[in-house]
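User: Run a structure prediction on this.
Assistant: Running it now.
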Amino acid sequence: WKRSSERMRELLDAWKTHQRQGARIDKPTENALWQRFSHARNSFDKARKGHFATLEQSRGEAKATKERLVGEAERLASSKDWATTARAFKDLMGQWRTARGDDDALWERFKSAQDAFFAAKDQVAAAEDEEFRGNLGVKEGLIAEAESLLPITDLEAAKAALRTIQDKWDRAGKVPRADIDRTEKALRRVESAVREAEDKKWKASNPEVAARANSMVTQLESSIASLTDDVAKARAKGNEKKVAELTAKIEAQQQWLDQAKAGLDEFGR
């Protein structure tokens, strides 16, 4: 708009110069040309004014939006509902970023309110962390006690010891925020190992699973015996191709049989 406005002024000055110094043309032609020129200028001015009016309205709306966000932020600045208010500030920041226009004064007010809330929140969290630091020592001792149960050699004894550790863990209370994830995961690893050992023991004592495993061994042994007889017959007939095919089948089934027998060992069979 700035460059176009300057160019429009240059055209008007050139028109006036031609009026004063240029060759005269008849009045009807002069008027018709002036009407075209004037109409173009008026259309341009109308569009320019409309653009800046819309821009000013948009700026006003953006400012009103940001003033509303500042009001919300200042209202929340003294809140002690830490988790809910932290989420609310995150939402307000998202709205601020999408609002058009820049206003340093409003931003400073918004940021000041946000900083005041999070400074108070961090101060309370720091005091809590200091209060919970003693609990951390207790839980680290319980982690070491739980990890000493691994690898599990006596499942029932391990389960009993873990239950005692879990009870003490619950009574120990909270730990500093930075240590929550690390300590919880450490205990979860031991709990998972105990559950896995319990699942393995259950599967090993499940009669249905044992019966299926035993049946598989019997079927494979029978199949291998039959294939071995077939190999002898094929060899007697001099059919080496058949011998090779049957031998390959025997080798594959022997691998399956070895695996099945290894599974039976878990059942003590």
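The CA atoms of residues 135 and 173 lie 6 Å apart.
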